[in-house]
Design brief:
The chain is an alpha+beta fold and 342 residues long. It has 7 helices and 18 strands. The N terminus is likely disordered. It binds zinc ion (2 copies).
């Protein structure tokens, strides 16, 4: 999904004004709106925000890890070793290319409270952030989020259900963080919940229903590149984000993530995604042997509409608190769009 053009509200406003000018005469309009600026062109970039190398507990060098993602059609990669920031200058000199591929600095700030792991990714941090410690799970998490912000990075809360460490109530109480992993590709992180603990998607709907706006990231958390095809090790290529940004540069990408301008995926690809004041439209890049469902989900996780053909459209009724979409492929692959707040 590249080079799709979605008109922002100001752009639509300007376009409508320009049309008005053409139809009814420019003399009725102030000078400032007569010239229509070129609409910003956005591109879609597939990337992974969570990956390990030999600089922590991965099995491959940064060079090999970056090569894997570049050769598998990704456009950007964040290297996020535990408590270590890998320099990306040499990697970008070797593998990067303008508007083709970019390596972004990162760190998985890896803290704990007693036996509970608290891992927060810092995307595009300026330097290493040390684990901050704290007295409660919320305290530890918040202190690390704030330290990542102080280092100029964008935080995302990793695998909340790993070791059942960070609850939905904990997430509800956090501040200055917009991103969390709705899906982490590691095979032991309990994305779906169980035993009375909600899965991450259910937690997401609880947060949104309570007015806590968060955006769901999907990523690999890959550690093992030398056992391709083994589902019992955390390998690459299982989950990613597709980000709508003006250009392939670190700030452009992380700012788009923080705006919720992306979708998360475990294998479903979209060809179009548009939101206007009235509708959401989703078009799927369909695999010939697969079938799809598009679920539009609102407050408290309620199914507002299910569509079975692409493109799928949802028309806002006006009383939704939020609307997000989940696209399900017939073999279990999924994509999640970010909530549109109403
Ligand atoms: Zn982790
Ligand atoms: Zn990790």
């Amino acid at each position: 999904m590249r080079r799709a053009r979605v008109w922002s509200r100001p752009a639509v406003f300007v376009a409508v004004l320009a049309l008005y000018g053409v139809t009814w005469g420019f003399r009725t309009l102030p000078a400032s709106v007569r010239v229509q600026p070129p609409a910003a062109t956005y591109h879609w970039y597939k990337g992974n925000t969570h990956t390990h190398t030999l600089n922590s507990d991965g099995d491959s060098t940064p060079d090999d890890v970056v090569r894997w993602y570049r050769e598998h059609g990704y456009r950007f990669l964040v290297l996020s070793d535990h408590n270590f920031v890998t320099s990306v200058d040499g990697l970008n000199a070797l593998h990067g290319a303008d508007e083709q591929f970019l390596v972004i600095k990162g760190e998985e700030v890896s803290d704990r409270l007693e036996d509970k792991p608290v891992h927060i990714n810092g995307l595009d941090v300026s330097g290493k952030v040390d684990p901050q410690r704290g007295r409660t799970i919320v305290d530890v998490t918040q202190r690390n989020i704030d330290a990542i912000r102080k280092a100029g990075g964008v935080p995302h809360v990793n695998h909340p259900n790993y070791e059942w460490a960070i609850s939905g109530d904990d997430l509800q109480r956090l501040e200055r963080v917009k991103l969390f992993e709705v899906y982490n590709g590691h095979h032991k992180v309990n994305n779906l919940g169980g035993g009375g603990v909600p899965g991450m998607e259910e937690v997401w709907d609880r947060l949104l229903s309570n007015g806590r706006v968060m955006y769901g990231v999907a990523d690999d958390d890959a550690h093992v590149f030398k056992q391709p095809g083994n589902p019992d090790v955390p390998g690459p290529g299982r989950a990613w984000v597709v980000v709508r940004a003006e250009r392939l540069a670190p700030r452009s990408i992380v700012d788009a993530l923080e705006r919720g301008d992306f979708y998360a995926s475990t294998g479903v690809e979209l060809t179009d995604y548009q939101v206007t004041d009235k509708t959401i439209t989703i078009a799927i890049k369909e695999q010939p042997s697969s079938k799809y469902r598009v679920q539009f989900i609102g407050a408290k996780g309620r199914l507002l509409k299910e569509a079975t053909s692409s493109p799928a459209t949802y028309a806002f009724t006006g009383d939704e608190k939020y609307v997000r979409a989940k696209i399900l492929e017939s073999n279990g692959r999924v994509a999640w769009t970010q909530p549109v707040i109403r």
